[in-house]
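ok so for the tutorial part 2 we go from a plain amino acid sequence to predicted structure tokens. step 1 is just haveing the sequence, like this:
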Amino acid sequence: MPSATGTVIAATPVLTPSSVSSVPAESEDTNKAEDVEPQNTLTQRFTEAEWKALKEFRASLSAILTEAFPGDETAKEKPVTMWGVKIDPANPKDAKISVVLMKFLRARNLSTTEAREMFVNTLRWRKSFNIEAALEEKFPEDIFGQLAHVYGHDKEGRPVVYNLYGANKDLKAVFGDVQRFIRLCRWRVALMERSTELLDFNEIDQAIQIHDYEGVSLTSRDANSKAAAAEATNIFQSHYPELLYKKFFINVPTILNWIFWVFKPVISANTLAKMSVVGTGTHAINKALIPFIDAKELPERYGGEAKAF
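step 2 — the prediction. this is what the tokens look like for a chain of 309 residues:
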């Protein structure tokens, strides 16, 4: 159409429903539903970088299970249970599953390749160790009964595990030979599994450990006890990542305290931040533990009010 000045002005096209390209509403709703991540208190704390790594890690879950169990043709579609959480490759978008997988990612600084290797090794180890059988085993109460206790919770609901290394003076009964060594490792793993079962992975996913060295000296630690401690440390670092909130070493003899500080430079900052070495005496121990554990939950032997063990 010509204007008053003679310039031709193009007519504005009329948009009709058929001329507008759009995504059907139903398709949009479906895509949004697929993008929604099931959330709980713990997953809501994930960072953007953690979510990115998790989605990449989770996408390869079937392949990971196939790698972990190469002799099982159904492994890629078969659910596995770890720490009371069912990990189903067919339905991996689950808040608890996200929390469990994130532990392997955080342990390997969000490297999906390294987290995958750790996860595969853990799945293989759990099968070869036969975790279910270890939980069913009966361990001699007179030997192991006083060595450890899972008692109470900290102020935020985390379970507290007490390890009393000097509770059994008969070291030969505990560490005496290869069979006893194997039995000790299985007892220790069963204890770890039972304490882990107390985590709901919705709000609580870590525990506090208290290692009591009362009655322990350098001369009381023979080669077998040192080997057992090394094996337990290797198992927990390799197959139970990021399950520890805080670890206290209490009633530590002066010489052992000195050894700890000597090795301090080689301990990672993340691990070191979770560790606290406390001397002897009820006052010092109570002062260290009370900020984390309420007096009503803390055993009397450590200056609390609980009539525990």
